[in-house]
Design a protein that fits this description.
about 260 residues; glycogenin glucosyltransferase
């Protein structure tokens, strides 16, 4: 078994669609490493089956039913529900090194070199570049780290109410520490960049490794014309959405009942 794995999370079927396309994008670029998806019981059986067809492991995590530290912490901070689910990735101790990818990311070039980085490596967040964006990060599974994260969340909460705030407070030396833990922005190009700095996108775009469709406008919620096979979106963003949809139509939708 590989000691390295890609990890994502889907707590419902909608994000499950994102996870399916993400897994196909990893196959498309020929990654040598398996992909694992964490799901919650709210994911339906048919989606579970689909995920099982493309992920090496589909692992159900159920924070609410377990009588552990996470459960106790959650009782005090119910708003951190999805955040706690993401943190479960530290329990994947069957692997030594993992890269977490949000279900709304798309790998466009092989990124296997990410596994050479150390915990916690991540790319800057465009909203506040002294914080890392928690949609793509390199980590080392460890039950001890998981327990510490839960205790930290219980005591301090998260300054943004989500996993990004919590992880940035916990790994607080990221901004000023080892520069090798700063991933190039190309490993987590958030969709805001498509709008805010178009010349840079034109100049560096061909080196892009991972696209991250942050915010409410997820690819699976866009208008897609099945007759023409094209997405309805502004020019500069259409290319990336089209890539997501091409994988969806070619690899996922064609397999749906
Ligand atoms: N997620 C999920 N269910 C939800 C919300 C989020 O499974 O209802 C997972 C999913 O992997 C998602 C990640 O948590 O990609 C982070 O949320 P999202 O990508 O929506 O946040 P953004 O990147 O837009 O800030
Ligand atoms: Mn995301």
């Amino acid at each position: 078994m590989s000691s390295r794995a890609w990890v994502t999370l889907a707590t419902n079927d909608s994000y499950g669609l994102g996870a399916l396309v993400l897994a196909h994008s990893l196959r498309r670029v020929g990654s040598s490493y398996p992909a694992v998806v964490l799901i919650t019981p709210s994911v339906t059986d048919p989606m579970r089956e689909r995920l099982g067809g493309v992920f090496a492991e589909v692992i159900t995590v159920d924070v609410l039913d377990s009588q552990d530290a996470a459960h106790l912490a959650l009782l005090q901070r119910p708003e951190l529900g999805i955040t706690f689910t993401k943190i479960h990735c530290w329990n994947l101790t069957q692997y030594e090194k993992c890269v977490f990818l949000d279900a709304d990311t798309l790998v466009v070039q092989n990124c296997d070199e990410l596994f050479e980085r150390e915990q916690l490596s991540a790319a800057p967040d465009v909203g506040w570049p002294d914080c890392f964006n928690s949609g793509v990060f390199v980590f080392s599974p460890s039950v001890d780290t998981f327990t510490k994260l839960i205790a930290f969340a219980q005591e301090r909460g998260s300054f943004d109410g989500g996993d990004q705030g919590l992880l940035n407070s916990f790994f607080s030396d990221w901004a000023r520490g080892d520069i090798n833990k700063h991933l190039p922005f190309l490993y987590n190009v958030t969709s805001a960049a498509f709008y805010s700095y178009l010349p840079a996108l034109k100049h560096y775009g061909q080196n892009l490794k991972i696209i991250h469709f942050i915010g409410a406008a997820k690819p699976w919620l866009q208008q897609f014309n099945f007759e023409s096979g094209s997405v309805d979106a502004p020019d500069h963003i259409r290319g990336f959405l089209q890539l997501w949809w091409d994988l969806f139509v070619g690899q996922v939708h064609s397999q749906l009942d």
